[in-house]
Design goal:
The complex is a heterodimer of chains A (about 400) and B (about 140).
Chain A: E1 7-8, H1 19-25, H2 27-30, H3 41-61, E2 68-71, H4 74-88, E3 95-99, H5 104-114, E4 119-123, H6 133-139, E5 144-148, H7 162-171, E6 175-179, E7 198-202, E8 213-217, H8 243-258, H9 260-281, E9 285-287, E10 298-303, H10 308-317, E11 320-321, H11 337-341, H12 346-349, E12 352-356, H13 363-383
Parallel strand pairs in A: 1-11, 3-4, 3-5, 5-6, 6-7
Antiparallel strand pairs in A: 2-8, 7-8, 9-10, 10-12
Helix pairs in contact in A: 1-8, 3-8, 4-5, 6-7, 9-13, 10-13
Chain B: H1 4-11, E1 24-30, E2 35-44, E3 47-56, H2 59-72, H3 77-80, H4 85-91, H5 100-120
Antiparallel strand pairs in B: 1-2, 2-3
Helix pairs in contact in B: 1-2, 2-5, 4-5
The chains are: A alpha/beta (about 400), B alpha+beta (about 140).
The complex binds pyridoxal-5'-phosphate and FE2/S2 (inorganic) cluster.
Protein backbone atom coordinates (compact mmCIF):
# COMPACT_ATOMS: atom_id res chain seq x y z
CA UNK A 1 0.00 0.00 0.00
CA UNK A 2 2.80 2.40 0.88
CA UNK A 3 4.64 3.96 -1.99
CA UNK A 4 8.36 4.48 -1.46
CA UNK A 5 9.53 6.07 -4.68
CA UNK A 6 9.37 9.85 -4.89
CA UNK A 7 6.79 10.91 -7.45
CA UNK A 8 6.98 14.58 -8.37
CA UNK A 9 3.73 15.92 -9.81
CA UNK A 10 4.22 19.63 -9.33
CA UNK A 11 6.00 20.73 -12.51
CA UNK A 12 3.90 23.89 -12.66
CA UNK A 13 5.50 24.94 -9.37
CA UNK A 14 9.00 24.33 -10.64
CA UNK A 15 11.11 21.80 -12.54
CA UNK A 16 14.52 20.26 -11.94
CA UNK A 17 17.38 21.76 -13.96
CA UNK A 18 18.17 19.65 -17.02
CA UNK A 19 21.62 18.03 -16.73
CA UNK A 20 22.84 19.31 -20.11
CA UNK A 21 21.66 22.80 -19.21
CA UNK A 22 23.49 22.66 -15.90
CA UNK A 23 26.64 21.51 -17.67
CA UNK A 24 26.47 24.54 -19.94
CA UNK A 25 25.97 26.86 -16.99
CA UNK A 26 28.81 25.72 -14.75
CA UNK A 27 31.83 27.23 -16.56
CA UNK A 28 30.23 30.66 -16.26
CA UNK A 29 30.56 30.49 -12.50
CA UNK A 30 34.15 29.43 -12.20
CA UNK A 31 36.18 29.73 -15.41
CA UNK A 32 34.51 32.62 -17.18
CA UNK A 33 33.41 34.76 -14.30
CA UNK A 34 34.24 38.14 -15.81
CA UNK A 35 31.88 41.05 -15.38
CA UNK A 36 30.17 41.60 -18.75
CA UNK A 37 30.60 45.36 -18.33
CA UNK A 38 34.42 45.08 -18.14
CA UNK A 39 36.49 45.75 -21.23
CA UNK A 40 39.13 43.04 -20.81
CA UNK A 41 38.80 39.68 -22.52
CA UNK A 42 37.08 37.64 -19.80
CA UNK A 43 34.50 40.41 -19.48
CA UNK A 44 33.95 40.47 -23.24
CA UNK A 45 33.41 36.69 -23.24
CA UNK A 46 30.63 37.09 -20.69
CA UNK A 47 29.10 39.89 -22.70
CA UNK A 48 29.18 37.79 -25.85
CA UNK A 49 27.54 34.74 -24.28
CA UNK A 50 24.71 36.92 -22.93
CA UNK A 51 24.16 38.40 -26.39
CA UNK A 52 24.07 34.89 -27.87
CA UNK A 53 21.47 33.88 -25.28
CA UNK A 54 19.45 36.98 -26.11
CA UNK A 55 19.49 36.05 -29.79
CA UNK A 56 18.33 32.49 -29.02
CA UNK A 57 15.39 33.76 -26.99
CA UNK A 58 14.48 36.39 -29.58
CA UNK A 59 14.44 33.83 -32.41
CA UNK A 60 12.10 31.57 -30.43
CA UNK A 61 9.51 34.27 -29.81
CA UNK A 62 9.96 35.89 -33.24
CA UNK A 63 11.18 39.26 -32.01
CA UNK A 64 14.35 41.32 -32.18
CA UNK A 65 17.30 40.65 -29.94
CA UNK A 66 17.11 44.23 -28.67
CA UNK A 67 13.60 43.60 -27.38
CA UNK A 68 14.68 40.88 -24.90
CA UNK A 69 15.67 41.91 -21.36
CA UNK A 70 16.92 39.49 -18.74
CA UNK A 71 15.49 39.80 -15.23
CA UNK A 72 15.78 37.96 -11.93
CA UNK A 73 12.47 36.04 -12.21
CA UNK A 74 8.94 35.96 -13.57
CA UNK A 75 7.78 38.07 -10.67
CA UNK A 76 10.25 40.84 -11.52
CA UNK A 77 9.22 40.74 -15.17
CA UNK A 78 5.56 41.17 -14.21
CA UNK A 79 6.36 43.97 -11.75
CA UNK A 80 8.49 45.76 -14.29
CA UNK A 81 5.94 45.45 -17.09
CA UNK A 82 3.01 46.69 -15.04
CA UNK A 83 4.66 49.42 -12.97
CA UNK A 84 6.93 50.47 -15.81
CA UNK A 85 4.07 50.90 -18.28
CA UNK A 86 1.74 52.48 -15.74
CA UNK A 87 4.18 55.19 -14.68
CA UNK A 88 5.59 55.90 -18.14
CA UNK A 89 2.14 56.31 -19.69
CA UNK A 90 0.35 58.12 -16.89
CA UNK A 91 -0.19 61.18 -19.02
CA UNK A 92 -2.22 59.08 -21.48
CA UNK A 93 -4.48 57.47 -18.91
CA UNK A 94 -4.72 55.55 -15.66
CA UNK A 95 -6.84 52.54 -16.53
CA UNK A 96 -5.55 48.95 -16.68
CA UNK A 97 -7.55 45.84 -17.63
CA UNK A 98 -6.79 42.34 -16.37
CA UNK A 99 -8.63 39.14 -15.37
CA UNK A 100 -9.56 37.69 -12.00
CA UNK A 101 -7.36 34.58 -12.39
CA UNK A 102 -3.92 36.15 -12.78
CA UNK A 103 -0.93 35.01 -10.72
CA UNK A 104 -0.32 36.98 -7.54
CA UNK A 105 2.76 38.53 -9.16
CA UNK A 106 0.29 40.40 -11.40
CA UNK A 107 -2.69 40.76 -9.05
CA UNK A 108 -0.74 42.13 -6.11
CA UNK A 109 1.23 44.49 -8.34
CA UNK A 110 -2.00 45.85 -9.78
CA UNK A 111 -3.45 46.12 -6.28
CA UNK A 112 -0.46 48.29 -5.43
CA UNK A 113 -0.99 50.43 -8.54
CA UNK A 114 -4.66 50.69 -7.55
CA UNK A 115 -3.53 52.40 -4.35
CA UNK A 116 -1.42 54.83 -6.36
CA UNK A 117 -3.94 56.45 -8.62
CA UNK A 118 -4.56 53.74 -11.19
CA UNK A 119 -7.93 52.19 -11.87
CA UNK A 120 -7.95 48.43 -12.40
CA UNK A 121 -10.74 46.46 -14.08
CA UNK A 122 -10.76 42.73 -13.30
CA UNK A 123 -12.69 41.03 -16.10
CA UNK A 124 -14.14 37.80 -14.70
CA UNK A 125 -13.42 34.58 -16.57
CA UNK A 126 -16.18 32.26 -17.75
CA UNK A 127 -17.06 29.05 -15.86
CA UNK A 128 -14.44 27.16 -17.88
CA UNK A 129 -11.62 29.41 -16.67
CA UNK A 130 -11.19 31.29 -19.94
CA UNK A 131 -11.78 34.99 -20.40
CA UNK A 132 -14.13 36.13 -23.15
CA UNK A 133 -12.06 38.46 -25.35
CA UNK A 134 -15.19 40.48 -26.15
CA UNK A 135 -15.52 41.34 -22.47
CA UNK A 136 -11.99 42.67 -22.55
CA UNK A 137 -12.95 44.84 -25.53
CA UNK A 138 -16.01 46.13 -23.70
CA UNK A 139 -13.89 47.10 -20.70
CA UNK A 140 -11.70 49.43 -22.78
CA UNK A 141 -12.27 53.12 -22.28
CA UNK A 142 -10.53 56.31 -23.22
CA UNK A 143 -8.19 56.16 -20.20
CA UNK A 144 -7.10 52.56 -20.82
CA UNK A 145 -3.33 52.24 -21.25
CA UNK A 146 -2.71 48.54 -20.71
CA UNK A 147 -4.29 45.09 -20.91
CA UNK A 148 -2.57 42.31 -18.96
CA UNK A 149 -3.85 38.76 -19.47
CA UNK A 150 -1.90 35.61 -18.65
CA UNK A 151 -1.11 33.21 -21.49
CA UNK A 152 -2.01 30.10 -19.48
CA UNK A 153 -3.17 29.78 -15.90
CA UNK A 154 -0.90 28.17 -13.32
CA UNK A 155 -3.61 26.40 -11.32
CA UNK A 156 -6.07 25.09 -13.87
CA UNK A 157 -3.90 25.35 -17.00
CA UNK A 158 -6.51 27.13 -19.09
CA UNK A 159 -5.13 28.83 -22.20
CA UNK A 160 -6.41 32.35 -22.80
CA UNK A 161 -7.35 33.78 -26.23
CA UNK A 162 -4.11 35.72 -26.50
CA UNK A 163 -4.15 36.33 -30.25
CA UNK A 164 -7.70 37.69 -30.11
CA UNK A 165 -6.89 39.97 -27.18
CA UNK A 166 -3.71 41.12 -28.93
CA UNK A 167 -5.79 42.11 -31.95
CA UNK A 168 -8.30 43.98 -29.78
CA UNK A 169 -5.49 45.81 -27.98
CA UNK A 170 -3.89 46.83 -31.26
CA UNK A 171 -7.18 48.04 -32.78
CA UNK A 172 -7.74 50.21 -29.72
CA UNK A 173 -4.21 51.53 -29.39
CA UNK A 174 -3.77 49.92 -25.96
CA UNK A 175 -0.59 48.11 -24.88
CA UNK A 176 -0.82 44.36 -24.24
CA UNK A 177 1.19 42.44 -21.65
CA UNK A 178 0.99 38.69 -21.14
CA UNK A 179 2.39 36.64 -18.26
CA UNK A 180 3.59 33.63 -20.28
CA UNK A 181 5.45 31.98 -17.39
CA UNK A 182 3.37 28.79 -17.60
CA UNK A 183 3.18 28.75 -21.39
CA UNK A 184 6.78 29.24 -22.50
CA UNK A 185 8.44 26.00 -23.53
CA UNK A 186 5.10 24.19 -23.90
CA UNK A 187 3.13 26.41 -26.28
CA UNK A 188 4.30 28.13 -29.45
CA UNK A 189 4.49 31.87 -28.91
CA UNK A 190 4.89 34.41 -31.69
CA UNK A 191 4.82 37.96 -30.36
CA UNK A 192 4.41 39.42 -33.86
CA UNK A 193 1.48 37.29 -34.89
CA UNK A 194 -0.17 37.64 -31.49
CA UNK A 195 0.39 41.41 -31.18
CA UNK A 196 2.02 41.05 -27.79
CA UNK A 197 3.81 44.21 -26.58
CA UNK A 198 5.25 42.87 -23.34
CA UNK A 199 5.74 39.30 -22.15
CA UNK A 200 7.08 37.70 -18.95
CA UNK A 201 8.98 34.40 -18.86
CA UNK A 202 10.67 32.42 -16.09
CA UNK A 203 13.31 29.72 -16.69
CA UNK A 204 12.53 27.37 -13.80
CA UNK A 205 9.26 26.27 -15.37
CA UNK A 206 11.01 24.66 -18.35
CA UNK A 207 13.94 22.80 -16.77
CA UNK A 208 16.08 25.91 -16.43
CA UNK A 209 17.41 27.50 -13.24
CA UNK A 210 15.36 29.42 -10.69
CA UNK A 211 15.91 33.15 -10.31
CA UNK A 212 16.15 34.19 -13.94
CA UNK A 213 13.50 35.52 -16.28
CA UNK A 214 12.84 37.56 -19.37
CA UNK A 215 10.77 40.58 -20.15
CA UNK A 216 10.09 41.12 -23.82
CA UNK A 217 9.41 44.80 -24.52
CA UNK A 218 8.37 45.73 -28.05
CA UNK A 219 10.54 48.40 -29.62
CA UNK A 220 9.13 51.89 -29.16
CA UNK A 221 7.05 51.00 -26.09
CA UNK A 222 7.45 53.63 -23.39
CA UNK A 223 8.40 51.95 -20.13
CA UNK A 224 10.01 53.23 -16.91
CA UNK A 225 12.80 51.31 -15.22
CA UNK A 226 11.99 49.18 -12.21
CA UNK A 227 15.61 48.79 -11.07
CA UNK A 228 17.74 51.92 -11.24
CA UNK A 229 21.50 51.68 -11.13
CA UNK A 230 24.26 50.70 -13.54
CA UNK A 231 24.05 50.68 -17.30
CA UNK A 232 23.27 47.01 -17.85
CA UNK A 233 20.63 45.83 -20.32
CA UNK A 234 21.00 49.03 -22.34
CA UNK A 235 20.38 51.06 -19.14
CA UNK A 236 16.89 49.57 -18.82
CA UNK A 237 17.57 47.02 -16.09
CA UNK A 238 20.45 47.66 -13.70
CA UNK A 239 22.39 44.96 -11.90
CA UNK A 240 25.34 42.76 -12.88
CA UNK A 241 24.03 40.03 -15.15
CA UNK A 242 23.52 36.52 -13.80
CA UNK A 243 25.55 35.08 -16.67
CA UNK A 244 25.28 31.38 -15.83
CA UNK A 245 21.54 31.61 -15.30
CA UNK A 246 21.04 33.56 -18.51
CA UNK A 247 22.99 30.86 -20.35
CA UNK A 248 20.80 28.28 -18.59
CA UNK A 249 17.58 30.05 -19.50
CA UNK A 250 18.43 30.20 -23.19
CA UNK A 251 19.71 26.61 -23.32
CA UNK A 252 16.65 25.25 -21.50
CA UNK A 253 14.26 27.23 -23.68
CA UNK A 254 15.99 26.10 -26.84
CA UNK A 255 15.84 22.48 -25.74
CA UNK A 256 12.20 22.79 -24.71
CA UNK A 257 11.22 24.21 -28.07
CA UNK A 258 13.17 21.53 -29.94
CA UNK A 259 11.40 18.76 -28.00
CA UNK A 260 8.06 20.50 -27.65
CA UNK A 261 6.00 18.03 -29.64
CA UNK A 262 7.41 14.97 -27.95
CA UNK A 263 7.13 16.57 -24.52
CA UNK A 264 3.55 17.62 -24.95
CA UNK A 265 2.60 14.19 -26.19
CA UNK A 266 4.30 12.56 -23.21
CA UNK A 267 2.66 14.73 -20.56
CA UNK A 268 -0.70 14.83 -22.31
CA UNK A 269 -0.87 11.04 -22.36
CA UNK A 270 -0.13 10.79 -18.63
CA UNK A 271 -2.50 13.64 -17.81
CA UNK A 272 -5.37 12.14 -19.81
CA UNK A 273 -4.84 8.71 -18.30
CA UNK A 274 -4.88 10.19 -14.79
CA UNK A 275 -8.03 12.19 -15.46
CA UNK A 276 -9.79 9.20 -16.93
CA UNK A 277 -8.85 6.84 -14.08
CA UNK A 278 -9.62 9.29 -11.31
CA UNK A 279 -13.05 10.09 -12.72
CA UNK A 280 -13.74 6.38 -13.15
CA UNK A 281 -12.58 5.34 -9.70
CA UNK A 282 -13.43 8.26 -7.44
CA UNK A 283 -17.09 9.30 -7.46
CA UNK A 284 -18.13 12.91 -6.94
CA UNK A 285 -15.00 14.34 -8.46
CA UNK A 286 -14.99 17.51 -10.54
CA UNK A 287 -12.38 18.59 -13.08
CA UNK A 288 -11.78 22.33 -12.85
CA UNK A 289 -11.18 24.36 -15.99
CA UNK A 290 -11.69 23.77 -19.69
CA UNK A 291 -10.61 20.32 -20.89
CA UNK A 292 -9.54 21.33 -24.39
CA UNK A 293 -7.95 24.76 -24.14
CA UNK A 294 -5.59 23.64 -21.44
CA UNK A 295 -1.87 23.07 -20.88
CA UNK A 296 -1.14 19.44 -21.79
CA UNK A 297 0.45 18.59 -18.43
CA UNK A 298 -2.16 20.09 -16.12
CA UNK A 299 -5.13 18.55 -14.36
CA UNK A 300 -7.03 20.05 -11.44
CA UNK A 301 -9.59 18.06 -9.46
CA UNK A 302 -12.03 18.88 -6.71
CA UNK A 303 -12.98 15.96 -4.52
CA UNK A 304 -16.23 16.80 -2.80
CA UNK A 305 -16.47 16.67 1.02
CA UNK A 306 -12.74 16.82 1.72
CA UNK A 307 -10.16 19.54 2.20
CA UNK A 308 -7.03 19.93 0.09
CA UNK A 309 -4.32 20.29 2.69
CA UNK A 310 -5.09 17.03 4.44
CA UNK A 311 -5.08 15.35 1.04
CA UNK A 312 -1.63 16.80 0.26
CA UNK A 313 -0.26 15.68 3.61
CA UNK A 314 -1.38 12.10 3.04
CA UNK A 315 0.10 12.17 -0.47
CA UNK A 316 3.34 13.55 0.95
CA UNK A 317 3.50 10.71 3.48
CA UNK A 318 3.37 8.42 0.47
CA UNK A 319 6.14 10.35 -1.31
CA UNK A 320 3.81 11.96 -3.83
CA UNK A 321 4.39 15.68 -4.27
CA UNK A 322 1.49 17.72 -5.56
CA UNK A 323 -0.22 21.00 -4.79
CA UNK A 324 -3.64 22.22 -3.86
CA UNK A 325 -5.66 25.29 -4.73
CA UNK A 326 -6.56 25.51 -1.12
CA UNK A 327 -4.28 28.28 0.02
CA UNK A 328 -4.57 26.94 3.56
CA UNK A 329 -1.10 25.56 2.94
CA UNK A 330 0.28 29.07 2.62
CA UNK A 331 -1.18 30.22 5.90
CA UNK A 332 -4.39 31.80 4.75
CA UNK A 333 -7.58 29.82 5.01
CA UNK A 334 -9.06 31.27 1.85
CA UNK A 335 -9.39 28.90 -1.08
CA UNK A 336 -7.73 29.90 -4.32
CA UNK A 337 -9.02 32.98 -6.14
CA UNK A 338 -8.83 31.01 -9.37
CA UNK A 339 -11.22 28.29 -8.24
CA UNK A 340 -13.60 30.83 -6.75
CA UNK A 341 -13.46 32.70 -10.08
CA UNK A 342 -14.89 29.57 -11.73
CA UNK A 343 -17.91 29.95 -9.48
CA UNK A 344 -17.14 26.93 -7.31
CA UNK A 345 -18.64 27.03 -3.83
CA UNK A 346 -16.06 27.46 -1.04
CA UNK A 347 -16.25 23.92 0.29
CA UNK A 348 -15.56 22.48 -3.17
CA UNK A 349 -12.81 24.96 -3.89
CA UNK A 350 -11.21 23.83 -0.62
CA UNK A 351 -10.96 20.24 -1.82
CA UNK A 352 -8.83 20.74 -4.89
CA UNK A 353 -5.73 18.99 -6.11
CA UNK A 354 -3.43 20.09 -8.93
CA UNK A 355 -1.24 17.52 -10.66
CA UNK A 356 1.23 18.77 -13.27
CA UNK A 357 3.30 16.25 -15.21
CA UNK A 358 6.83 16.32 -16.61
CA UNK A 359 9.61 14.33 -18.25
CA UNK A 360 10.33 12.35 -15.09
CA UNK A 361 6.83 10.83 -14.85
CA UNK A 362 5.64 7.56 -16.37
CA UNK A 363 2.52 5.40 -16.48
CA UNK A 364 3.56 3.53 -13.36
CA UNK A 365 3.47 6.85 -11.49
CA UNK A 366 -0.05 7.40 -12.72
CA UNK A 367 -1.16 4.01 -11.44
CA UNK A 368 0.46 4.62 -8.03
CA UNK A 369 -1.01 8.08 -7.68
CA UNK A 370 -4.49 7.04 -8.72
CA UNK A 371 -4.61 4.08 -6.35
CA UNK A 372 -3.27 6.21 -3.49
CA UNK A 373 -5.88 8.85 -4.26
CA UNK A 374 -8.68 6.30 -4.18
CA UNK A 375 -7.62 5.24 -0.66
CA UNK A 376 -6.87 8.67 0.73
CA UNK A 377 -10.00 10.37 -0.63
CA UNK A 378 -12.17 7.58 0.79
CA UNK A 379 -10.43 7.79 4.14
CA UNK A 380 -10.87 11.56 4.39
CA UNK A 381 -14.47 11.33 3.26
CA UNK A 382 -15.22 8.85 6.01
CA UNK A 383 -13.87 11.40 8.46
CA UNK A 384 -15.89 14.22 6.95
CA UNK A 385 -19.15 15.46 8.49
CA UNK A 386 -20.19 16.59 5.00
CA UNK A 387 -20.12 13.06 3.65
CA UNK A 388 -23.19 10.95 4.31
CA UNK A 389 -22.65 7.69 2.51
CA UNK B 1 5.59 22.89 9.62
CA UNK B 2 3.73 20.46 11.92
CA UNK B 3 5.10 18.76 15.05
CA UNK B 4 5.45 14.98 15.23
CA UNK B 5 2.50 14.89 17.60
CA UNK B 6 0.31 16.71 15.07
CA UNK B 7 1.39 14.38 12.29
CA UNK B 8 0.73 11.37 14.51
CA UNK B 9 -2.81 12.50 15.32
CA UNK B 10 -3.40 13.48 11.73
CA UNK B 11 -2.24 10.21 10.22
CA UNK B 12 -3.68 7.98 12.96
CA UNK B 13 -6.62 9.95 14.28
CA UNK B 14 -8.15 8.58 17.48
CA UNK B 15 -11.90 8.14 17.87
CA UNK B 16 -12.95 8.90 14.32
CA UNK B 17 -16.47 8.41 13.05
CA UNK B 18 -19.95 8.56 14.48
CA UNK B 19 -20.63 6.89 17.85
CA UNK B 20 -23.48 4.44 17.56
CA UNK B 21 -25.13 5.34 20.86
CA UNK B 22 -24.19 8.96 21.40
CA UNK B 23 -26.50 11.16 23.43
CA UNK B 24 -24.99 14.55 22.64
CA UNK B 25 -23.46 16.15 19.57
CA UNK B 26 -21.90 19.51 18.77
CA UNK B 27 -20.81 21.04 15.48
CA UNK B 28 -18.80 24.18 14.82
CA UNK B 29 -17.16 25.95 11.90
CA UNK B 30 -18.46 26.14 8.37
CA UNK B 31 -17.46 24.88 4.98
CA UNK B 32 -16.80 28.40 3.78
CA UNK B 33 -13.88 28.71 6.19
CA UNK B 34 -12.69 25.27 5.23
CA UNK B 35 -13.25 23.65 8.63
CA UNK B 36 -16.21 21.83 10.16
CA UNK B 37 -15.86 19.84 13.37
CA UNK B 38 -18.48 17.59 14.87
CA UNK B 39 -18.06 15.90 18.25
CA UNK B 40 -20.25 13.01 19.45
CA UNK B 41 -20.50 12.17 23.15
CA UNK B 42 -21.86 9.26 25.09
CA UNK B 43 -22.43 10.57 28.61
CA UNK B 44 -23.60 8.60 31.64
CA UNK B 45 -24.05 10.25 35.03
CA UNK B 46 -22.19 13.32 33.81
CA UNK B 47 -19.16 11.24 32.85
CA UNK B 48 -17.99 11.13 29.22
CA UNK B 49 -17.93 7.39 28.63
CA UNK B 50 -17.12 7.64 24.96
CA UNK B 51 -16.39 10.32 22.38
CA UNK B 52 -15.77 10.53 18.65
CA UNK B 53 -15.42 13.14 15.93
CA UNK B 54 -15.92 13.89 12.26
CA UNK B 55 -13.93 16.72 10.71
CA UNK B 56 -13.72 18.44 7.35
CA UNK B 57 -10.54 20.44 7.37
CA UNK B 58 -6.80 20.71 7.12
CA UNK B 59 -4.25 18.47 8.84
CA UNK B 60 -4.29 20.62 11.96
CA UNK B 61 -8.09 20.51 12.18
CA UNK B 62 -8.04 16.71 12.12
CA UNK B 63 -5.22 16.57 14.69
CA UNK B 64 -6.88 19.02 17.11
CA UNK B 65 -10.16 17.08 16.89
CA UNK B 66 -8.38 13.84 17.58
CA UNK B 67 -6.42 15.10 20.59
CA UNK B 68 -9.47 16.86 22.00
CA UNK B 69 -11.37 13.57 22.10
CA UNK B 70 -8.50 12.00 24.01
CA UNK B 71 -8.31 14.89 26.44
CA UNK B 72 -11.97 14.65 27.49
CA UNK B 73 -12.57 10.91 27.42
CA UNK B 74 -13.53 9.58 30.85
CA UNK B 75 -13.82 13.09 32.29
CA UNK B 76 -16.70 14.68 34.14
CA UNK B 77 -18.58 17.03 31.80
CA UNK B 78 -17.83 20.04 33.96
CA UNK B 79 -14.14 19.27 33.79
CA UNK B 80 -14.35 18.79 30.02
CA UNK B 81 -15.98 22.20 29.77
CA UNK B 82 -12.77 23.78 31.06
CA UNK B 83 -10.76 22.44 28.10
CA UNK B 84 -9.04 25.37 26.44
CA UNK B 85 -7.55 25.73 22.99
CA UNK B 86 -4.25 26.34 24.76
CA UNK B 87 -4.39 22.90 26.33
CA UNK B 88 -5.08 21.44 22.90
CA UNK B 89 -2.05 23.24 21.44
CA UNK B 90 0.17 22.13 24.32
CA UNK B 91 -0.94 18.54 23.99
CA UNK B 92 0.12 18.67 20.34
CA UNK B 93 3.51 20.26 21.18
CA UNK B 94 2.48 23.40 19.31
CA UNK B 95 0.71 24.55 16.15
CA UNK B 96 1.80 26.98 13.43
CA UNK B 97 0.33 30.48 14.00
CA UNK B 98 -2.03 30.21 11.03
CA UNK B 99 -3.52 27.05 12.53
CA UNK B 100 -4.34 28.34 16.02
CA UNK B 101 -7.85 28.74 14.66
CA UNK B 102 -8.17 24.94 14.50
CA UNK B 103 -7.49 24.55 18.22
CA UNK B 104 -10.19 27.13 18.93
CA UNK B 105 -12.60 25.09 16.85
CA UNK B 106 -11.76 21.97 18.85
CA UNK B 107 -12.44 23.73 22.14
CA UNK B 108 -15.70 25.11 20.81
CA UNK B 109 -16.83 21.78 19.39
CA UNK B 110 -16.39 20.11 22.79
CA UNK B 111 -18.32 22.93 24.51
CA UNK B 112 -21.05 22.74 21.92
CA UNK B 113 -21.48 18.98 22.42
CA UNK B 114 -21.61 19.33 26.19
CA UNK B 115 -24.09 22.18 25.87
CA UNK B 116 -26.26 19.82 23.86
CA UNK B 117 -26.18 17.32 26.73
CA UNK B 118 -26.91 19.96 29.35
CA UNK B 119 -29.75 21.38 27.30
CA UNK B 120 -31.48 18.02 27.44
CA UNK B 121 -31.26 18.35 31.23
CA UNK B 122 -32.76 21.79 31.13
CA UNK B 123 -29.50 23.65 31.67
CA UNK B 124 -28.54 26.30 29.18
CA UNK B 125 -24.86 27.12 28.93
CA UNK B 126 -23.37 29.79 26.77
CA UNK B 127 -21.30 28.69 23.81
CA UNK B 128 -19.62 30.49 21.03
CA UNK B 129 -20.73 28.63 17.97
CA UNK B 130 -20.66 31.16 15.25
CA UNK B 131 -18.38 32.22 12.51
CA UNK B 132 -16.60 35.24 13.88
CA UNK B 133 -14.61 35.73 10.71
CA UNK B 134 -11.44 34.90 12.58
CA UNK B 135 -9.81 33.55 9.43
CA UNK B 136 -11.22 36.12 7.04
CA UNK B 137 -9.08 38.92 8.35
CA UNK B 138 -6.44 40.31 6.06
CA UNK B 139 -3.73 37.73 6.07
C1 LIG C 1 1.77 32.37 -14.10
C2 LIG C 1 2.96 32.68 -13.24
N1 LIG C 1 3.43 33.95 -13.21
C3 LIG C 1 4.50 34.27 -12.48
C4 LIG C 1 5.17 33.34 -11.73
C5 LIG C 1 6.36 33.78 -10.91
O1 LIG C 1 7.56 33.40 -11.47
P1 LIG C 1 8.90 33.38 -10.58
O2 LIG C 1 8.73 32.23 -9.65
O3 LIG C 1 10.01 33.18 -11.54
O4 LIG C 1 8.98 34.67 -9.89
C6 LIG C 1 4.72 32.02 -11.73
C7 LIG C 1 5.39 30.94 -10.97
O5 LIG C 1 5.40 30.81 -9.79
C8 LIG C 1 3.58 31.69 -12.51
O6 LIG C 1 3.09 30.45 -12.52
S1 LIG D 1 -14.59 30.31 12.04
FE1 LIG D 1 -15.53 31.40 10.45
S2 LIG D 1 -13.94 32.54 9.73
FE2 LIG D 1 -12.96 31.36 11.19
Amino acid sequence: MMNNKNIYLDHAATTMVDNKVLEMMLPWYTEHYGNPSSIYSIGRESKQVIENARQTVADIFNCKKSEIYFTSCGTESNNWALKGIAYANKSKGNHIITTNIEHHAVLHTLEYLGKHGFEITYVPVEKNGIVDAEKIRQAIKKETILISVMFANNEIGTIQPIEEIGKIAKENGVLFHTDAVQAAGTLTIDVEKMNIDLMSISAHKFYGPKGVGVLFVRRGVKIDNLLHGGGQEKTRRAGTENIASIVGLAAALEKAVENMEEYNEHIRKLRDLTAQEVIKRIPETIINGDLEKRLPGNINFSFKYIEGESLLLFLDMNHIFASSGSACTSGSLDPSHVLLALGLPHEIAHGSLRLTFGWDNDEEDVETVVSQLVTIVQRLREMSPLYNK
Amino acid sequence: MYTEKVMDHFSNPRNVGELKDYNAVGEVGNAKCGDIMRIYLKIEDDIIQDVSFKTFGCGAAIATSSIATELIKGKHVDEALTLTNKAVIEALDGLPPAKIHCSVLAEEAVKEAIADYKKKQGIIIETHNQCDNCCREDR
